[in-house]
Amino acid sequence: MTFVAVPMQTKSRGTAIVSALQQRLNRPTAEKPRPVFTINRRVARAFLDESAGLESLVARMAQCLNAYPHFFILRGPPPTEDAVLTVQIAKAIAGLKPHPLARVSGQALRVSHTRVEIDRNATLATGVTRYSRTHLALTPHTDSSYNPVPHELLAFQMVRDDAEGGVSILAPIEDVLANLDDAQIVALHKTKVPFGKRSYPVLWRQQGQSHIRFYDQQIQAAVSNGAALSEAARGALQPLQDVINVPRLFHSFALRGGETLFLHNTLALHGRTGFAKDSNRLMLRIRIYAGALV
């Protein structure tokens, strides 16, 4: 079992910190930290059997997600359409600490499991969640943005990658905020925008850390269905939209078959480049509430 590339600890406070962040953003993308966990068959079997002895590894995975850059890549298992290992790892991370929603409901929280591949019948008009099932590029966004509480933990298990496109783009919140001024950040904390049938601020504070929910296509779909988007909200969103449309500011890499990307959904936005209309690219997407990431 090997862990490669320890993530950098970053806080977005003070001009010195912002200056350091800006210097890092000016580096070539290849220099950005990319945490990788490589597991062997024995460790994979231990996860599947829910064996003891994995606590330290799982805690380090959670630590990676809570610290900059808020994602890691899992390597080792061969490509498969079976998501059971990814689900078990996600559940192990989620189970480190009870989630507030579980404490309120008294029930175990459900794991969401979805195949993400081209749906020839998918159009933007058939529902914004189907946008990911096209060949089109996706600008950085968060999942479950329409939920009162978005899922904290996402995993994307690559079964078949596309050799010509579908490059992953990861935008940690620290890098996003480093490219906004104080007034723009305040506006995103205060101004509510529509996500589906409800409206929420894009940014909020939790445990002393700013978190983010943002999915431009969901906002536009809500407005198309009659939701109000004030001039103040449009003004607050524009600088954010400008920043996330500059991929060179963020992490980009091609996730290959057999690799799985784990990320903190409210601390890192994710997107992708486009790929061929006839691509057989296939990913499995896992969403789960994770108390260790609250």
* Structural class category: alpha+beta
- Beta fraction: 15-25%
* Major sheet attributes: 7 strands, mixed
Ends apart, CA distance between termini: 27 Å
Shape assignment: globular
Question: Tags for this entry?
Answer:
alpha+beta; 7-stranded mixed β-sheet; 4-stranded antiparallel β-sheet
How do you describe this structure in short?
The chain has 294 residues and is α+β, with helices and mostly antiparallel strands. The protein has nine helices and 15 strands.
Structure description:
The chain is of the alpha+beta class and 294 residues long. It has one domain: Double-stranded beta-helix (4-Layer Sandwich), CATH 3.60.130. Helices cover 29% and strands 24% of the residues. The protein has helices at residues 14-25, 41-48, 55-66, 84-94, 100-105, 173-177, 182-190, 216-224, 231-244, and strands spanning 2-4, 36-38, 71-75, 112-117, 138-141, 153-160, 168-172, 192-195, 198-201, 203-206, 209-212, 251-253, 260-264, 268-272, 282-288. The strands form four sheets. The chain has a seven-stranded mixed sheet with strand order 1-2-3-13-6-15-4, covered by helices on one side. Strands 5-14-7-12 form a four-stranded antiparallel sheet. α7 (182-190) crosses α9. The protein is globular. The chain starts with a strand and ends in a 6-residue tail after the last strand.
SSE blueprint:
Elements: E1 2-4, H1 14-25, E2 36-38, H2 41-48, H3 55-66, E3 71-75, H4 84-94, H5 100-105, E4 112-117, E5 138-141, E6 153-160, E7 168-172, H6 173-177, H7 182-190, E8 192-195, E9 198-201, E10 203-206, E11 209-212, H8 216-224, H9 231-244, E12 251-253, E13 260-264, E14 268-272, E15 282-288
Helix pairs in contact: 7-9
